[in-house]
Amino acid sequence: MDTMTTKETKKQVITTSQVEHVALLARLELNEAEKDIYVNQLNNILAYMQMLNELDTENVTPTAHVLPLCNVFRQDEAGRHMPVEKVLANAPEKEEQFFKVPRIV
Known about the structure:
Layout (H helix, E strand, L loop, with lengths): L15 H10 L6 H22 L30 H4 L6 E2 L2 E2 L6
Antiparallel strand pairs: 1-2
């Protein structure tokens, strides 16, 4: 289901060997049909990005997000807190006044 016709497709930038290399790094097993699909899809993405690169963005202000955002978090202020016994009441495991969790290292 290509959105671009052969006429619109620019030169091939991503090769099958590059897809195979990335698949190896990601430990993915791809058959030949999947490799062809990824080569085609990645080249279509890069061709579309090239189209976007051709747009005049001289007077466009750079943004990090399309919507104006502000910090919606409250101020971090010390205040009243729940008693330790109540906080740990439903903990599956605890040790003294702490949650006990499995070691992850």
